[in-house]
Specification:
Blueprint (H helix, E strand, L loop, with lengths): L3 E2 L5 H10 L5 H11 L14 H10 E2 L4 E7 L6 E6 L5 E9 L2 E5 L3 E3 L14 E4 L2 H15 L3 E6 L9 H11 L12 E5 L3 H7 L7 E5 L5 H7 L8 H15 L3 E7 L7 H15 L5 H5 E7 L13 H13 L4 E3 L13 H10 L5
S-adenosyl-L-homocysteine binds next to strand 10 and strand 12.
Length: 360
């Protein structure tokens, strides 16, 4: 049987384990600090832990380490894209983005994805399995060690639908924000979802005020269904109501993601419809439009398996202007690491194919 990962245990669980093993309570704090502050990758590195306790830990547990099979570093902006091999031979990808305000890591939450969004490469082969909280922590820890600087932001926007792996994602969030660990502020964490309503409502109650990014991609139920099959299950009105509830509970501004596809959802009429839809969203809110949400436009990154194309710059500008004229706060996602291409699952797929482990 696979050993359990020691990083999976929170402080209370480690303390209970030390008690069970007849060890003093402070050992739990020491071990936790080695794992989650120093982010050690082997039992040997835990210097102040007595040898026999260390050996016993090693017999009962493992420490997940992300092995970088490939690291692409952008000459333009220092963005690093990692392909990590997992213990079972699966591969995932994660990205380090260097901004003026700090280092941001984009992690995967599943191997693949089963949501089926039309333009996304992560979902083409379905979902292989969920990642554990320890594996998600290891993505951040490995990248932090590799760049040698503090990681200040985490975005769960890599492969996978985080709400489809809810328990492990919440465990990850609790540990990455833990004052005894890396202590990353919940305000500096963004979780992106395609709109799984029960997950959004549950997360609102966790007392973890992370930023919610909602993948909207269309201003109408019909168009949304064409782009995202999950929209058939959770209807647009219901999704926006859940976002409103999330904002009310956490006070965190919602980020609406809108991947812009040429000729599919980039018309001025759609920009107007989006403005009206979101105008309704903000109605009656304390902070008004500015405080309640903003829109992030993502020019689609074409994948070879689909005939979706990037919008013309003029169409993108027009779309943006319509939103702005309606008083909406808009950003256009800056493409990081342009020279090392491959977004959202494309790198993993390419790697899997070349290594002969992919399904195609
Ligand atoms: N499952 C989560 C995280 C997905 S990745 C979600 O659906 O939100 C983060 C964002 O990138 C999502 O909005 C997703 O729809 C978008 N995305 C994925 N592939 C893309 C592509 N090729 N071009 C543009 N945006 C893409």
């Amino acid at each position: 049987m696979e050993k359990r990962d020691l990083c999976e245990l929170n402080m209370q669980e480690l303390e209970a384990l030390m008690k069970e093993w007849g060890q003093p309570k402070f050992r739990a704090g020491q071990i936790y600090a080695w794992l989650h502050r120093q982010t050690v990758e082997s039992f040997d590195e835990m210097k102040n832990i007595p040898k026999d306790l260390n050996r016993r830990l090693e017999e009962a547990f493992r420490i997940t380490v992300m092995n970088a099979e490939e690291v692409l570093i952008s000459a333009i902006d220092g963005t690093r894209k990692y392909v990590f091999a997992l213990w079972d031979g699966n591969v995932i990808e994660a990205v380090l983005m260097k901004y003026h305000h700090g280092n941001s890591v984009c992690i995967s939450s599943q191997v693949g994805c089963r949501m089926g969004c039309r333009f996304c490469a992560s979902t083409l082969d379905g979902c292989v399995r969920n990642l554990s909280a320890a594996e998600m922590l290891a993505e951040v820890y490995r990248i932090g060690r590799d760049c040698g600087e503090r990681i200040s932001n985490v975005v769960i926007m890599g492969s996978g639908e985080p709400m489809d792996n809810y328990e492990e994602v919440v465990r990850f969030l609790k540990m990455i924000t833990d004052a005894d660990g890396l202590n990353i502020s919940a305000r500096n964490i963004t979780l992106s979802t395609c709109g799984i309503v029960p997950g959004i409502l549950k997360l609102a109650e966790e007392g973890l005020p992370v930023t919610l990014a909602l993948s909207l991609h269309a201003p109408s139920q019909k168009k949304r269904e064409e782009i995202m099959p999950i929209a058939k299950k959770y209807e647009l009105g219901e999704v926006l109501a859940a976002c409103r509830q999330y904002y009310r509970k956490t006070g965190r501004r919602i980020s609406f993601e809108y991947s812009v596809v040429k000729g599919v959802n980039d018309s001025p009429e759609e920009a107007k419809a989006l403005s009206e839809l979101l105008g309704g969203f903000a109605k009656g809110h304390r902070g008004g439009r500015e405080g309640a949400f903003h829109v992030n436009l993502i020019p689609v990154n074409p994948i070879e398996e689909r005939n979706y194309e990037s919008p013309d710059p003029a169409a993108l500008n027009r779309f943006r202007a319509v939103l702005e004229n309606h008083g909406i706060n808009v950003t256009v996602r800056r493409e990081m690491g342009r020279d090392i291409h491959s977004a959202c699952g494309q790198l993993r797929r390419r790697y899997s194919r070349h290594a002969g482990t992919g399904t195609d």
